[in-house]
Amino acid sequence: MIRAGICRSLPFVAAALLVLPALHAQEQGRGRKYKAPPPTCKVSVTVVKAWDGKPIEDAAVVFHPMKGTRDDGNMELKTNEDGKTVLNMIPVGDTVRIQVIADGYQTYGGDYELPQDTRDITIKLHRPTRQYSIYESHPGQSASNQSNGNNQQQGSQGSQKPQQ
Length: 164
What we know:
Elements: H1 2-27, E1 40-49, E2 60-67, E3 70-71, E4 75-78, E5 84-91, E6 95-101, E7 108-113, E8 118-125, H2 143-148
Parallel strand pairs: 1-8
Antiparallel strand pairs: 1-5, 2-3, 2-4, 2-6, 6-7
């Protein structure tokens, strides 16, 4: 009778002996390895009026992490009543392109390096200016630029000023 009980439990014992080495192998690092995320930079952006330094509430601050010259997604945050917003997700050493959009102000854009674990950025927004038109005369520009419509922009940050 004892012999019959041992014969019935033998397959279960054999299965347990086969599973134990597999469990032990996972403990030794043979499975998926954990990789800790890189340290991140705390980016604090303050948006103010250029002419008096007062904060701009509810401005859209768009963060574009850059991988080389390629945009790696974006995150939009709004400024609070002090004109501030904070993002703590971009790895230290990366570059971030920041775009600021607010009603009644010129759009701003600029690239910032993040070499340390904190970065404080103050952005001064200007009032909008007249739109540049190729159909108007612009004294001071060469005749070749006026005749063929080549528009030499002064920066890519929305800070283009009309030439008079």
